[in-house]
Design a protein that fits this description.
Two copies of one chain form a homodimer.
Chain A (H helix, E strand, L loop, with lengths): L1 H8 L3 E5 L8 H11 L5 E5 L5 E2 L2 E2 L13 E4 L3 H14 L3 E4 L8 H18 L2 E3 L5 E6 L2 E6 L10 E5 L2 H13 L4 E6 L8 H9 L6 E6 L5 H11 L5 E5 L13 H5 L2 H12 L2 E3 L2 H11 L10 E5 L2 H14 L8 H8 L12 E2 L6 H12 L4 E5 L11 H13 L5 E4 L8 H9 L4 E2 L2 H23 L11 H12 L7 H10 L7 E4 L2 H11 L3 E6 L12 E5 L2 H18 L5 E6 L4 E10 L3 E8 L2 H6 L2 E5 L4 H9 L18 H17 L3 E12 L2 E4 L2 E5 L7
Parallel strand pairs in A: 1-2, 1-5, 5-6, 6-7, 10-11, 10-12, 12-13, 13-14, 15-16, 15-17, 17-18, 18-19
Antiparallel strand pairs in A: 3-4, 8-9, 8-11, 20-23, 21-22, 21-23, 24-25, 24-27, 25-26, 27-28, 27-29
Helix pairs in contact in A: 3-4, 6-7, 7-9, 10-16, 11-16, 13-14, 14-15, 17-18, 19-20, 22-23
């Protein structure tokens, strides 16, 4: 496959099927683009109506194309597409770009056509981009290929761009050059009847020229495959994803808290984070991230020095750092003393270092060299002051000399101007892929991108296997098999507890009370307050039916509670319901649950228990499989995390048991497809251990138990 | 004052003191700028060393300047400034711009010079901009004045810009034209030894040409005055503020929760919101906001229609709307039917309306007219498709025709391109101040700005008097006067309760127990559980000293609790401590407090009680005075507000008593300067009323009691 895709991007001879001299014809535009971009191979228009098109000899049919044709672009009426694809297959042309629209995006007839197209792709084992796309563009050493109807070509460079949308694709092509982005590959996927983002990701992963990848997606072709590929790529090259098209939450009723709190977009966020991809939310953010990533240097940490000759801009940069959690540390006395050797007394020796308007290129070079060693990155703000006698590019040269000595520290430049007076500086920096920005906040955002990508890289290196301990899924399969066989949609607490225990998770001590005597006995043994609950697989929300009585300490209270629950059982007409007794645990309450997303599969939710969390929707998600370090990231990423640390005299909550629960629920979801939803609400973290206190399984009996 | 400032901006004759033919001289640059901008009045260089400068006759001294001189620009050595200012005063030149730096920004000697400068300003009643500034620029009908050393002039237009920083000022001047912003007034305040932002705000408030105001500030000269002026302006013209320079929280120890949760930046946020100003955090955000505000049309609500000929861009715009809470409502069946009359069947009839690439200017005009009536604003995305036979500006003309019929609805355009192919469209729109954007998200952000400014305008209209009911401050003054006289830093609960009651606030029923017998009696009358607390003005944090015992229902428990607290009192060596009994209230717990900010004065904090809120810092602030509608905004702006609405079977909390507490604490802060901090923590909202349950006053005995 990879060789074939390389051929798709580096063809020897390209046929343009449907090329005509007609004004505004798409195929004609593609033919012109191929020629204009400097494509070195042969170009063959195919059209029975013409002898020549744009000076090229025209072939009357695909079957008559020369042997060396290894890429065909189809830009013809949709009713002719299937026939042309078949002809390509027969002629041995295996790489196709189908520009033509009117397929699955255009109603029932189009869907049927696309179905047949898929059959042909499979039959002839074709590499097909499209249909309904604007084409592909590639530019790298030895190759210039514009097989698209775009008005813009690429400059070449370290970035590969895969776009599901065509209309945005062209906007982006136009913008790349403006933004100083070096792009070597552009693929507009269109309907993805054949090749998907995953195929091209594999291709770009192995392309040594590609240093960063950008994807615009509205949906994922195959999320699991995507994740596997990204887990291979993301320690090597950053992947930036602009995922658009937030869908409304599915209309299906959900029984669990997890289900009601899971939004499709929160799951996409979790999924991309786990893939190690940088998710951006706007096109501008994407371009800005790619600009700073194409240099390929990530900071070791988030400590930044700011050098400036304009005080206000330094303040704005420092403010922006504070907002984004980037550290602008005070400089050591030693560093300040060194700065005093050459900066005037009126300069500001804090961080930002305000070198005032008199600073020349020599001052910038010395100040950068003096300060950069003690931080992870630098933002250099230089706006030529009114009185300035040096060529501005000297400042760039000074920066480059410092970088030659400290090549692993990112330095970003801010000019406070986009006018001609800074152009020589900006261009000199651009030659070395050092990004420059007009506004200080934009430079700070770029530092933030570097820090976030670094954190993703570190997380990817820490990712380990989800389930290190052995466990048995026998109990789960037995219990769920029986529930499915009986057509049940829930489990008893006891069944749920058995499944969790078989995965090595701790459940709060409990017993079913067959009589009041057993209750008295349980209370005595508990040596502390207990809780009584009604348990039935049909009863999903105990609190709504007054099916829970807490704080039972005296035998008198026990008798009262027991009789009350018996009464409730009778009134609810649940003859199979039983009374469950549990020790009453005190500690910090958490909620951990499992839900299934139609695209991404099992998702695990983590949050702190209680009404406030529900109102704030302060929960985090992970998509199965979840490594221990990913589980820890989930736990740490809720806003209320400070409550789990040492707080108001309570010791910090032990995170290990919580990580266990998250990773094991994630595994259970994979092992047991019939578990549609699962809530452990609450899980209580006590000084003596962390226990699932209530357990709600929702079974989908239409799925297999294993 | 206003007439004088008008003269400052519209002088008849300008003297440039220090002008010289020397290359790079600041005064020489100003002279050149004055001439180059087309200033219609006389220009007089002042310099004893030259006969002429740049062709202008040079005056040897200020005292010899012609009578009609009504503005002097000083760009001379700092040691000559005081003398020159005095000379201007003597010569009757009352408007001065002092460019020279080296004053209070430059150490002790500079501070002394600035002090003397202030004396001269007062003595001669001068209007002085600066020192340490880049000057002022004004362009409006009949006036062209560039009295600055900026390399850029203004285009004229509806925006007035006041900047505290000079270096950023020039960056912004450069950017205005690029950003399509019409600016008529630019003031760089510099050190504000004389005129401040408040003087120029008053000037711009009365300038009929000024439609929007932009301020870049690092601090407020006089916050109270600023607020008074903005309260007058903000129903007329929007004010956009970029406030930079977040300061670290003061090092002073704070006793209250309110104090510990108040960050200077949260107070600035509250202050600007109450002023009715739109706070932005980046320069780009400021420019983008001003671009959309200069047209001066605000939407009635936040319902937006999106028209597009590029599907992906429509999705991105809709996503961005969802993120910002802008409503993209489904179109009615009626509207869809009308669209079907002219759009092709493959078009998307949702919202966004995807008119596909074949849509011409006529389709855009009809679709806009059809949909705009049922929403508040429109985003029109038009990127010329590859095959497009009309002049692109026809789309602009169609939009303008629709706007002529519906002039009160904002329409924003997104081109997905900044290339020449869209220039005629963009320019046609720009003539009518209709903003166009390259990226869809930027257009959506601009709609968000309009909605936020509209909300501020509505809030300003609703603002009413803070204290409508009569109250007496006699009790407060008596109690605080005594505390201050005794040098105390706290009050007893009883004293605090008396003050709150005198302001008409409800305090939880309580009694001091002089004996155990009184406790038994209180418990009996309470007919429910009670709480015992140790009360002493010296004891600020009761919980830390086990000074609170809750849930006392039986006489046995009462005896135990009473004796335990007596013991604690003895061990703490607080002979003046007393035991306080309160009814134990159940309901939703809130915290309302009062703190004082060094710049803004009294600030009131509102939050929901409990540890989670403290960990999340989920609180909101208001700066005194606080109107009832501002208090309601504070309450509604905490993230956990849903918990105060009907939630899990509990009825919604009555907001009126909370609004009462906020507005009355705000008044109390104004009435009683000796109250340094005040916590009502908790306030409990019960179905029968809302009560202050614990009261902590911190007194600053160095402030007067009234």
């Amino acid at each position: 496959m990879e060789n074939e895709l390389t051929k798709l991007l580096r063809p020897h001879a390209v046929a343009v099927v449907g090329a005509s001299p007609r004004e505004g014809s798409v195929a004609g535009t593609i033919l012109r683009n191929l020629q204009a971009c400097g494509f070195a191979g042969d170009i063959y228009p195919v059209n029975p109506k013409y002898e020549t098109v744009q000076g090229f000899s025209c072939y009357p049919s695909i079957s008559q194309l020369p042997d060396m044709t290894d890429l065909a672009i189809l830009a013809i009426n949709r009713n002719l597409v299937l026939q042309a694809v078949e002809a390509c297959g027969e002629r041995g042309i295996r790489n196709l770009v189908i520009i033509t629209a009117g397929f699955k995006e255009a109603g029932a007839e189009g869907e049927r056509l696309e179905e047949s197209l898929r059959d042909l792709i499979a039959r002839y084992d074709l590499n097909v981009v499209g249909p309904n796309c604007m084409g592909i563009i590639h530019r790298s050493e030895g190759v210039k290929l514009n097989a698209s109807f775009s008005r813009w070509f690429l400059t070449g460079g370290g970035i590969g761009f895969i776009s599901q949308s065509g209309s945005l694709g062209e906007t982006l092509l136009e913008t790349f050059e403006d933004a100083g982005l070096g792009v070597s590959t552009f693929i507009n996927l269109g309907n993805r009847a054949g090749l998907t983002e995953n195929d091209f990701l594999r291709q770009l992963a192995d392309d040594p020229q590609c240093r960063a990848i950008f994807l615009y997606l509205e949906s994922f072709a195959e999320p699991n495959e995507f994740r596997r590929i990204l887990e291979r790529i993301n320690q090597d090259k950053p992947v930036v994803v602009l995922k658009a098209g937030r869908t409304e939450a599915g209309a299906a009723a959900v029984a669990s808290h997890t289900g009601s709190l899971a939004s499709p977009d929160a799951i996409v966020d979790a999924f991309l984070r786990q893939c190690g991809a940088l998710r951006v939310t706007t096109i501008d953010e994407a371009l800005s991230a790619l600009r700073v990533l194409q240099k390929g240097i990530l900071p070791a940490g988030n400590r930044v020095v700011i050098l400036t000759n304009a005080g206000g801009a330094g303040i704005i940069a420092a403010d922006a750092c504070e907002r984004l959690g980037i550290d602008v540390p005070a400089l050591s006395e030693d560093v300040r003393a060194k700065l005093r050797e050459f900066l005037p007394p009126e300069a500001g020796y804090g961080n930002p270092v305000d070198m005032i308007a008199t600073a020349g290129s020599n001052d910038y070079e010395r100040a950068l060299e003096t300060t950069l060693a003690s931080v992870d990155a630098a933002i250099v703000i230089f706006r030529p002051p009114m009185v300035y006698h040096e060529p501005v590019e000297n400042v760039a040269d000074g920066i480059l000399r410092v970088l030659a000595k400290m090549p692993d520290k990112p330095v970003l430049v801010c000019t406070l101007s986009r006018s001609g007076m800074v152009t020589p500086l900006v261009e000199r920096l651009q030659e070395e892929w050092i990004p420059s920005y007009v506004m200080p906040e934009t430079a700070v955002s770029a530092v933030d991108v570097l820090c976030r990508v670094k954190a993703l890289e570190v997380a990817a290196q820490q990712a380990d296997e989800a389930m290190s301990e052995p466990y048995s899924m026998a109990a789960a399969h037995r219990i769920l098999g029986q529930a499915v066989a009986e057509g049940r949609t829930g489990l008893t607490f006891g069944e749920g507890a058995e499944i969790l225990s078989s995965y090595g998770l701790s459940v709060c001590p409990f017993a079913y009370l067959k009589s009041l005597e057993e209750g008295v006995c349980f209370l005595k043994q508990a040596s502390g307050p207990i809780v009584l609950k009604i348990d039935s697989p049909k009863l999903l929300h105990r609190f709504e039916f007054n099916a829970v009585i807490t704080d039972i300490e005296a035998n008198g209270d026990l008798v009262e509670a027991y009789l009350k629950l018996r009464e409730t059982i009778d009134s609810l007409h649940m003859p199979d319901a039983r009374i469950l007794a549990q020790k009453m645990l005190t500690g910090r309450e958490l909620i951990i649950g499992l839900d299934r997303d139609p695209s991404f599969g099992p998702a695990i939710m983590f949050g702190i228990g209680g009404t406030l969390v529900e109102a704030l929707r302060d929960v985090s998600f992970g998509v199965s499989p979840i490594s221990r370090s990913e589980a820890e990231t989930m736990i740490r990423s809720i806003r209320a995390f400070p409550l789990l640390e040492a707080f108001r005299g309570q010791p910090a909550v032990d995170l290990e048991p919580l990580i266990d629960i998250i990773t094991k629920l994630s595994q259970l979801a994979v092992d047991c497809p019939s578990v549609a939803e699962l809530d452990l609400n609450p899980v209580i973290a006590t000084p003596d251990g962390t226990y699932a206190v209530d357990i709600l399984f929702r079974i989908d009996p239409t799925n297999p138990a294993r």
